[in-house]
What we know:
- The protein is an alpha/beta fold and 362 residues long.
- The chain contains 14 helices and 15 strands.
- It has helices at 4-11, 61-69, 82-96, 114-127, 143-156, 170-179, 196-200, 206-220, 236-245, 254-257, 283-288, 312-330, 335-341, 349-355; strands at 20-22, 39-41, 44-46, 50-52, 73-74, 109-110, 133-136, 162-167, 183-186, 226-230, 249-252, 267-269, 272-278, 303-307, 344-346.
- An eight-stranded parallel sheet has the order 5-4-11-10-9-8-7-6. Strands 12-13-14 form a three-stranded antiparallel sheet. The chain has a two-stranded antiparallel sheet with strand order 1-15.
- α2 runs parallel beside α3 and α6 crosses α8 (206-220).
- The chain starts with a helix and ends in a 7-residue tail after the last helix.
Amino acid sequence: xxxxxxxxxxxxxxxxxxxxxxxxxxxxxxxxxxxxxxxxxxxxxxxxxxxxxxxxxxxxxxxxxxxxxxxxxxxxxxxxxxxxxxxxxxxxxxxxxxxxxxxxxxxxxxxxxxxxxxxxxxxxxxxxxxxxxxxxxxxxxxxxxxxxxxxxxxxxxxxxxxxxxxxxxxxxxxxxxxxxxxxxxxxxxxxxxxxxxxxxxxxxxxxxxxxxxxxxxxxxxxxxxxxxxxxxxxxxxxxxxxxxxxxxxxxxxxxxxxxxxxxxxxxxxxxxxxxxxxxxxxxxxxxxxxxxxxxxxxxxxxxxxxxxxxxxxxxxxxxxxxxxxxxxxxxxxxxxxxxxxxxxxxxxxxxxxxxxxxxxxx
Length: 362
Ligand code: IMP
């Protein structure tokens, strides 16, 4: 296991991606193209350890198909009518049958409660089967989640793997692992469009949450349960640091929302080409889905426009390229060894400044 957990425990500080760097090691890896970047999600081996967020400005069928064909996975969001969600899932399922490409996994997101069970019932009736089901709520460490996992398992006979979240602590991870889920989304309050920490004071840096959940996985013997680091991934190095801390995947919203495969059009604002990206708990998203903000609640997300970053393929290539290169600095051939061999060090704020390409600063 990497040393990030002991650094956090000893310092009693909650560390973020920018607080640490990884120590380069002796390497006998001769080519970055020889390393294995694959990771297993719900029994499916994916060559790209990236999952796209179930958000209405990130993952509909185009994203799920394209990220799936490039080796990752996309979760079709639940903030639409069940018929429309089924239509999106059927598109992904049809793409899965095309032998010329890697099969994209078919994964719907659902919420909790009776309506969401009938959503799932409707989807399963229409599509037959799916690769996994993501139960997508803000606080996965909850009785609502436990009941929903039971209800989903009753409906599917327990045969369909469940991705559940989100949680931020080792206790939250163990709770979901005990519920029998296959993968846990880890991270509360770290999303780039998230206001949860400001509105409630709750949350943890995603890197810290991953380290805590990884330690809980080790001590509880939940080796088969995957960790998906969710919220705050900006650079390929955040992917690398997440995996080196024990995540099996990262989940990305913002990084993918700016590409050509996310829903929505490219628009020009102040001479920049941009796309809409919004938190699913933002007032704007709630208004768009016709519910509006419920009385007595607050919005915990924001809506913004982000730079159009071009092809999804280009973004994924950058991320996987960064990961491959990192594996040569670590001298490892696969993601498991990356975690086992990683040595994190804390950095000062001046070192952070140095980390960026400061040669271009005026
Ligand atoms: P990003 O990749 O940093 O943009 O974070 C995306 C993640 O933020 C998603 O996968 C969700 O876990 C989380 N998220 C999505 N919408 C909201 C919201 O409105 N409030 C808080 N968190 C959100």
